Queue: 2 jobs
Job 1
Amino acid sequence: MPEPALIIRDLVAGYGDGIVLDGLSLTVGEGEALALLGRNGVGKTTLLKTIMGLIRPKSGEIRCRDRCIDGRPPFEIARAGIGYVPQGRELFGELTVEENLLLGNLKARDAALAYGYFPALAAKRREPAGRLSGGQQQQLAIGRALMGRPALLLLDEPSEGIQPSIVAEIVLILRRIMRDTGLALILVEQNIAMVLALCGRAVFIDHGRVVGEETTAALQADPDLVETRLTL
Amino acid sequence: MERLAISLLDGTNAVLVLMLVSLGLAIIFGLMKVINMAHGEFIMLGAYGVMALTEAGLPFWPALMLAPLIVVAIGLVAEELVIRRTYTRLLDTILATWGLSLVLRQAIILLYGPGSHAVAAPDLGTISLFGSPYPAYRLVVMGLSLAIIAGTIAVFFRTRFGLAARAVIANRDMAACLGIDTRRLDRFTFAFGAGLAGLAGAVMAPLISIDPAAGLGWLVPGFLAILVGGLGSLAGPLAGAAGIGGLDSFTSTLASPIAAQLVVFIVAIAVIRLRPDGLVARRRRQA
């Protein structure tokens, strides 16, 4: 396995006194695309939020490229090289496309990096983000995260509410970005087709722990394997 | 007719200063969700700053520039010691800033006593307007206020700092996830808002009676301006200040200051009842 972009050891986190992640451990290699699979409420989104610093871990360790980031504020984690595309995208709807992209890197001279991968956004640079279609908004959310030149990208349900042809286009662009930049990613996704097209490995999460792991080649070879794993 | 024209100018003067006050309040609330009950005291401190500096021998104009910076420094200390501990607890911000206002007012009473003081306006003479002499200093106050308001708008809409601030106002967590140090932005914003109040107090120093309660008279109209104008954008507080300040001046001229207060409150209640989001309600877009 290549050098890890992220190492999580025995992570415990949750909301208030409730525990959602209960001793979760996983590793993401440099340039690797890892899928998190599991039923609703098992802690996939909580894991991404905890990595990003939006939820403070109760115990455990999170390391990004050899730097301990658990318990650090989100802005420091973003600056450490982790990009985040949350569920629902959370764009700044009243700001223009260009302003949204520049927020991904306030020191950038322009948003050429994002426009290079998502040329459709360049034509809409002066439009408020809230006026874009769902697919364009998702491209903008990914482009915004890329502006910070992250080493690891966290993607939470990026295909939600987007038509399949646009999802396929986003997958192709993400693969190109990974090839160009060595970007690693963690994908939380219900759309198995997207998982298979993008990721090399998938881990199964249940009750806040990793309960299994498969290569996506194995999942592709046996279409029932995902359901079997989730049922177990 | 001449009297009305001069009253209109005086009203414009008051409106512009009220805009400075409302902008400071609105920026602090918009970014940090802090209802700053000490804003009036920051205005008062600006006036006292000019007084203290001129009494210490500094000429008026440098004192006018320096006094708001002193208020900025006080704002930074207050944010670090008090305000930051109340973030996300709206009601606690009211209590904490009210406590801060008491401390600041009592500190001024200890230093300068409870009585009122005056600062001499710089001798700029008068300018003939509509056939009547009008104090040139009041025109300077208007020009300076306009410049600061325009500058504030430019900072928010033409700089990366302003872009970051608007992002934090819209979605603090997401802004932080993009690498924006929201804590640092809070500190600067509170100090900036305090500085705007300090500037309002400083420019008004030669025109008002300077006493420990000098800022209170601006606080209520400042809050009313925000409620009437709306908090969704910088345009809301500015429109609210224009409406509240203009109505107050106009009614004071035609009737009396007491009648003006009555009219202002009745109109404010009516606007809040009919348009709860304010006159300049933000159009909400889902993204």
Job 2
Amino acid sequence: MKDNDAAGLLSVGRAIRWAIWILIAGVVWIFLSRVPAGSMAQTGPSPNPREGFSAPDFTLDLLGGGKVTLSDLRGKPVVLNIWATWCPPCRKEMPAIENVYRSYKELGLVVIGLNLTSQDSEQAVSDFVQELELTFPIALDRDGSVGDRYRPPGLPTTYFIDDQGVIQSVVVGGPMSEAMIQSRVEALFQEEQ
Amino acid sequence: MYPYLRVGPYLLQLSGLALLAGVWIGITLIEKEVARLEMDAGKITNTIFYGLIAGLIGARLGYALQFLPVYLSNPLSLFSLDMNTLSPELGTLIGLIVAFVVGQRYKLSMRPTLDALAPGLAVFMIALGAAHILNGNAYGAPAFLPWSVFLWADYRHPSQIYETVGAIGIFLVAMRRPFGSQGAGLNFLFVVAASAVARIFLEAFRGDSVIWPGGFRAAQVIGLLVLIISILLINSWGKSTGSTNPYNENQKAEI
């Protein structure tokens, strides 16, 4: 080591004196910056497609008839999987999603496969769903408006939404393993309790 | 924010790459510091390597423990390459324990070794801030200020930038080794204490803090405890100053 390293910028005694003053200021700052009870600043009240925020609402037609409105599903955990038939990882993870749906639907889990139909074809979606014998509802985003609102960074993107409509986790990319989907769903049910 | 890089069928999150770059640059700086302090580079590199591997395995096992029935029914999932199924907290804990045990087996003196690690820790904190800038996590509380950023449907404090600038400041001071060789371990304690101070003051601008009863932000309280422990250790370790080079393993100067 070089000799001029020996002293350094700070002496220990002076550093401790400074540190104690900073400590006192820190205690005061922690007290002043407490979050008032009932403050919404921490909860992110506005709908936003990310963790900790309310999932943006939508109403879409379902493949095979009927409609689904996300906000109507409050009280139930929801897995929202955004996909397209031309996306290989989306296709690959569908059987795992279906297995998890079958295991948990009796407990109240809702799975929605949100197809970006504006970039896809309804016939291809229908053929794919029949081929894999998918039983969870497939929502059709025909005009791309829901896709624009969620702006998934990549396909597939999956949102795990708790019974209060708050997104608990987002998984970008795939294919997701069955264990991973199952663990996220378990976390949603734990949250519910 | 939250950019991804598509490589074939894979989507790589750039924030993850920032963290990897932080680990790589950190290890490079640690190796330089080890050479400067005339310590045994092989032993320290091995200790870091075992700690990282154990941390990775521990992170997966920690995640699996949280969802034990899921993994018992599908044990092969333990070997999945999925980075979403890791427990960073448990991984860090196990990595540190294993690194400590390996360091003991190599008879590395703890305090000089910590000093060698200090630049690596400081650079990793910068990488963490950069990762937050890239993925939009650790976002700020809503605020209308001339320097607010529009993020997640609101104008907010650019808390990720505060965090990164603070970490750069700490790194620049840490690279000047603020305590010189007044006592082994002090330069590492500087990085820890300064990071705790940054957390205490900057956490107030965050919009995603974990809140404890009474409205106290958990990270601030933990930061305060870390700062107190650091001050006590600086006081204790600063009293023992040997005439030999405490970093040279051959001199075996136990501090």
